[in-house]
Amino acid sequence: MELEQIKVRSYLAKCSPLKDLPAEWLDRLAEAVSFKCHVSGDDVMKVGEQNNQVLLVRRGAVDVFLPDGELYGRFGKGDWVGYRSVMRGGVVGMNVKALEDCLFFAVPGALFLELVDSFERVSQYFSERKPERLRSAIKEMRGSDDYAMITLHVRDLMKPPLLLGRNEPVQSVAQQMMAGKSRTAIITGDDASLLGMVSDTDFRRVVAEGLSVAQPIGDIMTRKLYTLSASDQASEALLLMARFNLRHVPVVIGSEVVGVISATDLLRGQSQNAIYMVGDIFTAPDVARLAELSKGLPRVLVGLVKHNLPANDIGHAITSIGQAIVRRLLVMAEEQFGKPPVPYAFIVAGSMARREQTAHSDQDNGMILSDEYNEAEHGEYFRNVAKFVSDGLNDCGYVYCPGNVMATNDQWRQPLSVWRGYFETWINKPEPMALMYASIFFDLRCLHGDESLLDSLQEEVLLKTRASTLFQAFMAGNALSHKPPVGFFRGFVLDKDSKDDKADKGMDMKKRGVVPVIDMARLYALASGLKPINTWERLDAIAEAGGISRSLIDDLRDAFEFISTVRLQHQAQQIEKGQKPNNYVPPEELSALERRHLKDAFEVVSTMQDTMTTRYQANQFR
Length: 622
Hints:
4-stranded antiparallel beta sheet
């Protein structure tokens, strides 16, 4: 191989998607490549011409135009042009014009097609379908499946249940438990409903009290049970067991008992500091200790990102830490101010409600009080609790909400009937301020107190949002205020952090990246009356309900995953450099391949926004 070919081979080996190709293939390509030059203004390819070469831009830049003259994209060093015509039989479908003086490496079309047929990764890179390219990129990013325990779900750790009827004799149950090496037995009714559970503790009581081993197991079973869902995170199980001193908890899907999880199962699964952090939070004696523990959250985020975990799992893990702090503060508050005089639900909104937090964020919370609430009698108590929790969160890095959307604000600490009135107004009179609140308070979760207060409210709200086409149209128009950061020539639109005058411009991966998907998922879920709050869970529920086809949902999920991962990687890099993490990613921070995949992801989101606009007639309300 001549010196010039060796240089060509070395360059090809650095270009996507040729990296890691076998040596013999790089040799073949280097020997077959020819050089092609064009000066600025030249027509490189024209619609209708025959083309039998794929061009790799070695130097310079080109503009690609659709047949009607619209600019399709701008491509530079390391980008490929001409592959579409080669893959379609040779007829050029778009005009390519040299923007600068250009040098191309020209690969013969026949060899290119052989390369595509030989390597799936290469085929996916040049696929016409952006989602296929994204899916391949995400698969490569994921790498190991050895996820941190805090991202595991209860279903990953639970054991199969021993299910028995309530009339089974005590002795027979004990024998079956020994035979099956089970520490528990789940007692069910004739309709398979959960009635109770027995463990070694119950059998000790039989011996201690001299009870008959022939009596029905239903006589000695533990009836008051806590349960977990198979989809709950392991960290949720740990908190439940620690809070109520439980050793075993039944696991259900709907009303069906599908397993049992024990404290031993959880401890056996612990492999990362994050899960210990959640446990330490629950036992923290004061706010100072909580604040100290919370300082470890950025390190946890970096560790999870380095493990290449899915963005959804990272969001769940980081949120588990934040919600543990909220719950511990509420327990401390009730210890200090006494038991609540009337039932209440402490609710969180935004990313914590969706379980999609990344680093520390500002607070979004409130209280739904029972309609038994009387301001004169009960007001001071709930003001004290709200202030204690809000101040504690601020000490832990979850700063006060700039918009004052906190339980310390009287407006967001109200009886259930008042909250009903709020939602009634927001849905029936969707003015700009109402839409702002809708984007916050239509994502709610109860972290402490009487969950039924929020449950009843959400059921009523979903009935209204499903029926109100006017509200849906306004929400769709509001969602279009956040557009992906792709400019008119397919370049990236850059923004600047308003809180940092010295910051360089970058792509706002929150407002222009993840928020458009969050907004769309919220709209489709509310329009269909669907309960999930987490964006990934909403997307799945939308597909199951037929709101959007499964293939389009999968495309949007992949786009959301890639955008979220780029955002998380950027924040992790900033944390490692000792910087405060933000959402502004400079394009130069990304490789050429990452920029290409990011454009694919943004265009998938943009296409889905166009579909949403048509479906909900959003343009008339923008």
